[in-house]
Structures are given as C-alpha cells and as structure tokens.
Amino acid sequence: MTSMTLVADASARRRPGRPRDEDLDERIIAATLRRVDAGEAVTVSRIVADSGVSRSAVYRRWPSLTALIAAALDSGRVVPTVVGSRTDLKESILDAILGPVESQRPYEERFRQRIRLVMSDRGLQKEYWSAHVAKRRVPIEEAIREGIERGDLRADLDVAACFDAIAGAIYYQYVVRGESLSEQSTRDRVRAAIEIIWRGMLSQGMNGSAAEHEHG
Known about the structure:
Layout: H1 3-13, H2 21-37, H3 44-51, H4 55-61, H5 65-73, H6 89-98, H7 104-120, H8 122-150, H9 159-177, H10 184-201, H11 204-215
C-alpha cells in the first residue's frame, strides 16, 4: 500500500463536516457566556442545549462546571505585556493595568458579572484565581522583581503585596465606587493612588531622585 493510499484512506475515514476541537470550544464558551451575561443559572444541561455539543464533549474539555465557568469568565482576557526600563517601569505597569480607554466599556459589564458570580461561589473564586488570575499577575510581578534587582525598588518588598495594592486601586473603582475606567476622572484617580503606592516601593536613592525631580 502506498503512502498516497494511506492518506486517502485516512481522509475517507473522517466524518465530513465534523467540527474541529476549537470550534466546539468556542461554541461551549459562547453558550456559557450567554447564560452568564443574561444573569441566569449556568448548568451543563443548558450549555448542552444551547451549544448543540454533547455532555461528554463538555467534560472532555473541562473537568467540572466550575472550571468551565471560570474559563468562560476569562474569555477575551489577555496576559498584560510590561516593557519596562530604568525610567519607565511605573508607566509601563500603569499602561498594562489600565489598558486603552476604548477597551473598557465592553469589558466592564462582564467584569461586574464575574465579581457577582465569584463572590457567591467560593469554589469558582478559587478556580478562577488559580487557573487564570494568578497567571495574569506574572508579567507585572516579574517587572517589579527586575526593579528590585536593579536597585530602583526596595529590596524588602513583598512583590505579591505590591501587586495587590496596585490592583486594589482599580478594583475599588469598579466594586465600591461603581465607576468606569473609560472615564478620565477615574483613570486619574487610579493613577494618583498608584503614584502614592509607587513612592513607598522606591528604594531610598530613587525616592531622593524622585523628590528632587518634583521640586527641581
């Protein structure tokens, strides 16, 4: 049997029109998000009915409904890119966490839905943290560590706590104040808060340089 015959036989065995794995993934995620965005309970039965994908196909991709909902909630999110140097690390981090104004409005409604869901389900909260959020922190935490190694930032910094403080300034606008990052006044408030946090992170030498720059 020739290699050409083997290829032909393999093609003949494929079911025509069979959806690719990524197509099924997209359909399952889309069906999950429709329920989330509508504020409705998400169940495997509803996802199967909405997506046309079998229950077994759902569980082959996600080990639990909680893992699937966490993946759906993270759909469209990206790991931030931080390009820092000795003089622009703070600005690079600000750019990474604030994002462009035009990207905020469609994201914010789902963000609020995500907060509602994870706060009412601790298991989902933990899954979302470990599978998604913890990974998005990595570039900014690495940038902070590089700043420490260069001597720009204090050597005794708790990097995770620094990230929490920076991110907390943004979460407070969404969760407590009900503001939008598409509004310049909100962005200015976040920037002012992070400026204060950043001064506390600077090494003694860099703090002196920053003070001279402000008053010089």
